[in-house]
Amino acid sequence: MNTLSGLIKRHKLKISLTAVLIVFLVFILAAYPIKSKTRLTVVNGNIDLSSFDFKNNVKLNGQWKLYPYKLLSYEEIINIDDYEGINIKVPSLWTGVEYGSSIMEGRAFGTYVLKVQLPEGNKDLSLEIRDICSAYKLYIDDDLMIENGKVTTSKEEFIASYKPNLINFYTNETEINIIIQVANFSQLDGGIWDSIYIGTSYNIINKALKDHILDYFIIGGLVLMGIYHLVYFIFKNQWKEYLFFSLFAITIALRNIVTRSRSIYLIFPNIKWIFVTKLEYLTIYLAFLFCNMYVYHIYKEVYNRRIYKVIKILFILAILLHLFLPTSITQKYLNVFLIMSALLCLYILNVLFKTYKNQKEGAFTFIVGMFIIFLCFINDALVTIEVLETSFLVPIGVFIFIVIQSIATGRLFTNAFKNLEIYANENRKMYVEIKNLNETLELKVKERTNELKNKNMELKELACIDSLTGILNHRNIVNYLQTSIDNIDEYKFLSVSMMDIDYFKRINDSYGHQMGDRVLEKIVELIKNTLNKKGIVGRYGGEEFLIVMPRLGIYEAFKLIEKIRVNVENLKIEGIKDKVTISAGICECTVNSNVSDIIDRCDELLYKAKDLGRNRTEF
Question: Do the domain assignments include residue 293?
Fold first, then answer.
């Protein structure tokens, strides 16, 4: 018996996580089916519900018809021969979708069309619409049912709105056309972001009501836990953990108000879209900031103070940038934030496992709570790719985590309070001494770290930069080319040019090497200004330069290099009477390209340009 007890104690964490996983899987498999092969799906802009009994709601997911850059009416739709339509998955973004020989941009407009076959007889139906970015008009055949925001073909008169809607309609037709005119000039990506549901009015309203009840339950629970911990902090303000946990819970509650069923529109019906969007992002930043501060103050003995400060500064900076910069700019750096958040989660897990090994109270429940959130993330990912037909569970997982952590925090600090009263006087003196020693040590380490950092930066700069021209040297421009080829799938296009100054030896012989160096410096300055972030130039050797141009195809690269060549030809250099010209060769990289072949090919084209009379570009 003692052996079994000891075994359970040693493997308590593994047993608990396995039990949570089993309960989660049993719940998923018992409550919801795996995606059925016969599930109703939109195919080629059509869905057949003629045999459907409408006892449940139907997701209108699948291949809708989209007519990019056209706002079509019902009359135009029925004469569809005049227009080009494409199949697009709903829900999804339309950014980057190909139509004809073009690619659709994120900020654009278009018309979604779905033909729905219905059973015979009179039908009282409803649609539930959540996220369509960023404004739309919805028609049932030629009847306008709702306009959310203002749909236009230009940014000037466009008005965004993210208000969710329930649309009720009555029909005795056996076929209807759902036509949604969508415009987006506010977000980076447009389109129908979330599933659209169709069902009887009773079922749709019942579903929406259940969603709202669940949301309000979660929001109310989070707010109550936040207020409870805030009040506790006010009476015991030396425990900052309670403050940060309170702010974390209230931030998650605010995020649910803004994002889940967008209950914020019930409180503020006329709120501007820009405030909703900023709140949506700010609540993420604030949640991670407060979580970081909360974990640090609980596990100070394990949590590295420097890492804590760096993370705090980065998130505060992200919050300030999002407050004062346009959303269109801050959205571009969302991936940077996601990487920061992932690294923070990994570091917090590392801290928790260390504290658990040290038998620190509270670490076990924290790990179990985070494991529950992880399982909910997996569920949501499977729902997104339509493997499961469950609901999105991350908000519920976060709520369960906060409840568990709230109980653990209360228990943790109840025990801590008892011990604190006993050892307060003795520990106070010891704490002052240790704090002074830590601060002294930190100052010394900081000074040494700064010295090493400065030396390393100097060495790195000397190793990477050509000393005369200030651009990348031979080794590093070749390394940059290799990196660019490795990332060619991301860039889509990659062009490379080898460039050489014509008769440079004659310049050195006629005007001296100092004047030759000056010519090199002037031409490099001109190349950098002309490239203007469209490419990177490096000194390949002597008077030869290698230019790497990610995202530029051969024709765009040719225009850019020709512009450089003409600018050099027109360049006036004090002390040089002769005209200075350049010759260049350009080639385009593919996925299978290698550095040496590309450089050799550019070199061949460069010498071809020289053989044909110099002062020209060959590709």
Answer: yes
